[in-house]
Amino acid sequence: MQKKIFAWSVFVLICSLTAGQALAQGLFEKTADWGTTEYPPQRGSFKVPGSVTFANGTYTLWGNGDDIWDNNDEGFFVYTEKTGSWRLSGRVQWIDPGPNEWSKIGLMIRENGADPYSRTFYTILRGQDFGDRTDVAWRDNTGGPSYNTQTFQPDPDFPGSSIPVEATLEGLWLSVTRIAEANMVIAEYSFDGATWVTAGSRVMELPETVAYGLCITNHDDNDFLAEAIVSDVKLEEAAGTIVMRSFSGPEYFGATSLYKAGDTFQVTLTLTNTHGVAVESVLTETVPAGWIVSEISDGGSETSGVIMWNLSVPAGNSTVHYKVTVPDDPALNVSFNGNLDGVTTGGPAQFNRLLDGVGMFTAHADIGAVAADGAATYNEALDEYEVTGSGTDIWDYSDEFHFVFKEVHGAFSLKALVELDPFESSNEWVEAGLMARDDLSSDAANYATIIRTDLQQDAQWRLVKGGSSDSTSANMNADQLGELEITRAGNIFQAWYISLETGQRTLLNTQVVEMQDPIVVGLCVTSHEDGSLSKGYFLNTELHEYPAFAVRSLPVDALPAGGGVVEGVKLVVEVLPGTSFTGTVVENLPMGLTAANFSSPDANFANGMITWTLSGMEGTAELTYDLTVSENVALNGVTLSGQVNFSDGSSLATVGDDSLFPVFWTVPYFDRAVTLDGVISEGEYEGAYVETFAHEEGDLTPPGVHWSGKAYPADEENATFHIFHNSRYIFVAVDITDPILDFESGFTAYTEVWRNDSVELHMDGNLSRLEAKEDNRFGFQAAVLGDGSRTASTSAPTPVALPGGGYASNDGAFWNYGARAKEDGSGYVVEYQVDKFQILDPPTRTVIGFEILINGAEGTGDRTSKWGYWNTKLGMAQSDAEHWNDERGWAIIELMGAPVQSVSDWSLF
Asked: Are 849 and 892 in contact (CB under 8 A)?
């Protein structure tokens, strides 16, 4: 089966040039420089002004910026605003794209031209080789993720294959069009400006008035300005006739793109004519070979699987219909094709056959528009599943792979020994593994653990339908063979590795993914080279479904200083609807801990284990207890574990909160503030908590964890930090002594802020302990040059000058800061002012995750010192290679004295 490159609609377009004289900037009268103080936020450390000139019908654009991508953009945009349906086209050519291969020049339709977070649809030519790739991209929701698809064209040398669309020496013509009446946006390309090919289109509901314009970014966090020209620019009123396909019929496992022999589907073609008058047109549909056509509406006729209508398409919306019935022995995967006056019909086109189950699994099918048919078999004698799959990947915003699955309700565990044929493919990203999906649509929310041909194991997930994918990885030893496992309890999924040699289960990842029962669970394989096939082998496969599970929650996030009592540890036990649970719920306490005040008289505490015995339980129950922690235990933290034991002898581990972290520092309260000038003035930090660290090689003693920088003798660099708080702010000052810095010539000014000698401050105001909930983790970095004249920052607003030297942020939303070199030339000082209302969740919280990193070693970015005990979360081990940016471990500070202001008080500021 030939894979379709473009699945969205294309249109028939008739344009009339707008009236009126061109303005001083040609067709455009507005500009926006996203990432500047006028159009914040700044994504990176550098943003210098972009610009545009217009002469002799040509626009010359200069711009820089971190990227036009993700949830907000940084780049330069020249535009005009229009109401209704318009088409913007022009010939783009690079003059100097700069060194980054992903510099971009393109044409764009945007909901709000000045808003970096705005919804948008655009087509770009990237900078590598002055235009080796063309993409269509979009952001569906304000502040939401960005998506893209690369533009391909048929390969003239290899019929049936495709190659990327690249610019010629004359550049490349691009266009973007909006048909407002149909909420449709379309992107096209052309090599001559006369013959246009549709690159992609989307249904996107935009306001009545939107921006049309030209965009540029250098994709580098530096001050270089990429340069490009756009000529032959036209902005024309657009009118067209658009046709979209839709299906109604059987739905299997939450997906409407699967079929079985004998199924019947109603096909509706919706035509939108925006001309205002009827248009004579020819509409055709080609159905899959062997599918039986019936009930064709509006005088259409079918010959050899091709349906044709000669229509007078009225203004506005109209529809035509037909039915198709799947034959007794259909092809595995098929597609529908159609066109209106020769231009492709949009809407769903791909259908995959649902195949009968193998072994313990109910069914199997290809997911997504794979270019080669997958398969699955089960060898009962060997207890082995052999799954063959094609597809581009299980990643990004939709997946292509082969899936062997079963419907599951509630908690489960699925494990297997997973192997890949090492001689079948050289692609290291061939994947085979275990997966849970919300449904069988290609963009469904999912959670999986997979292995690759290089034996790397990944846990990966998509949190929401149509969202982006994410992952974490753990390399398996090449000479070690182990089982993979995924488990689910409520919405908490976990990935495990089980050593065949020792039987030890290692938790690799925990993730919250919301899926609605029933979900589908099973075995997955993708070749990562669409059109080729790869095989995965699954041995000793076991699927257990459990009638109940338990989730632990902790009432506090930190242990009392010097030990004490933690009141109200809670286990919520939930039983699958329509079932009952008989068994035990167990809590295993570390040595030296005791428990009391159990919620049930049936609880028994002996030998460090709490046991509740439940019989015939239905619905939900809460089991609580108080935990007493000794002083010595509190120094090292507390990790709890437990399980639900079922009457058949199986068990399921308790999920949720499992760690209490010791309080290392108590931060005093004073009703005063500091001046953010990079100077620790007399009296400013009087009475604050102060810790001085003399850099000693190998010092890993709490409360500090420290690494030695490559360029520093162990006994030379040192630092002192001061910390206190008032009713609204936390104040932190870090005083660095660093004899290796060259104060005569000034600090080395590296473009990347992380290369500069600097201080990073991180805080986590909710300490939720689940990766998906680290939404209050903020990171901030400030660096200072030798004369104190400049600071740079990441994840922070643009700095503005302070009186007397040093800098602060321009809005104070999360942080204000000041930094300057010391007058005696011995180092530098960074001061921070952190807004508690923005950091704390809830606002009255007094326990905060806290971390400071000292960066030095002259340009290497090495983290030479760190305050913050490495508290691992969710069983994930410390990774020295990633200690510079870890969301799993924090030191704990406790804000003493006066509490945070009430929420109502914040209106005073």
From this structure: yes
Mean pLDDT of the chain: 82
Percent of the chain scoring above 90 in pLDDT: 54
Q: What is the 3-state secondary structure (H, E, C) of 564-627?
A: EEEEEEEEEEEECCCCCEEEEEEEECCCCCEEECCCCCCCEEECCEEEEEEEEECCEEEEEEEE
Q: What is the DSSP letter of 837?
A: H
Collapsed DSSP state (helix, strand, coil) of residue 145: coil
The encoded tokens of residue 712 equal 């520093």
Q: Do 280 and 306 touch, CB atoms closer than 8 A?
A: no
Output the CA–CA distances (angstroms, integers) from residue 238 to 16, 89, 597, 896, in the order listed: 7, 12, 73, 65
Distance from C-alpha of 410 to C-alpha of 436, rounded to nearest angstrom = 12
Q: How far apart are CA 284 and CA 264, in angstroms?
A: 20
The Cα 62–Cα 75 span in angstroms is: 9
Residues in CB range of 157: below 8 A, 6 or more apart: none
Q: Which amino acid is at 359?
A: G
Residue 778 confidence (pLDDT): 38
Residue 53 contacts by C-beta under 8 Å, 6 or more apart in sequence? 59, 60
Task: For the beta carbon of residue 74, count every other beta carbon within 10 angstroms.
Answer: 29
SS3 660: strand
Give the type of residue at 497: Y
Q: Is the pLDDT score of 618 beyond 50?
A: yes
For 303, the token pair is 């010959």
Question: For residues 689 and 707, which has the higher predicted lDDT (pLDDT)?
Answer: 689
pLDDT at 863 over 90: no
pLDDT for residue 665 is more than 80: no
Residue 731 identity (one-letter amino acid): F
* Token couple for 222: 């530096």
Measured CA to CA, the distance from residue 493 to residue 510 in angstroms comes to 6
- pTM above the 0.85 mark? no
Considering only CA atoms, which of 670, 669, 719 is closest in space to residue 822?
719
Q: Kindly report each contact of residues 904-907 with a partner whose C-beta sits within 8 Å and lies 24 or more positions away, as own/partner.
A: 905/727, 906/837
DSSP structural state of residue 536? E
Helix and strand tally (H, E) in the chain?
2, 73
Name all contacts of 875-884 with Cβ < 8 Å and 24+ positions apart: 875/507, 875/510, 875/658, 876/507, 876/508, 876/509, 880/707, 883/707, 884/760, 884/853
Query: So what's the pLDDT on residue 887?
Result: 39
Torsion of CA 25, 30, 31, 34, to 10 degrees: -160
CB 806 within 8 A of CB 815: no
Q: What are phi and psi of 563, to 5 degrees?
A: 90, 175
Q: Which three-class secondary structure state does DSSP give residue 18?
A: coil
pLDDT recorded at residue 533: 94
Give residue 228's pLDDT band: very low, low, confident or very high (50, 70, 90): very high
- Residue 635 phi, psi dihedral angles, 5° rounding: -65, -30
pLDDT of residue 469: 87
110-114, 246-250, 531-535, 678-682: the lowest-pLDDT one? 678-682
Amino acid (1-letter code) at residue 225: L
Q: Please count the CA atoms within 13 angstroms of the CA of 237 that sit on its side-chain side.
A: 9
Q: Averaged over 197-224, what is the pLDDT?
A: 92
Q: What's residue 884's pLDDT?
A: 33
171 burial class (0-12, 13-18, 19+ CB within 10 angstroms)? buried
String of b and e for 301-321 (b: at least 16 CB within 10 Å)? eeeeeebebebebeeeebebe
Helix (H, G, I), strand (E, B) or coil at 900: coil
What CA–CA distances, in Å, run from 820 to 462, 684, 685, 800, 833? 44, 16, 17, 13, 15
Give residue 376's identity as a one-letter amino acid code: A
Q: Please identify which residue in the block is written with the tokens 């976990």.
A: 494
Mean pLDDT of 535-559: 91
Question: What is the C-alpha separation between 618 and 611, in angstroms, rounded?
Answer: 18
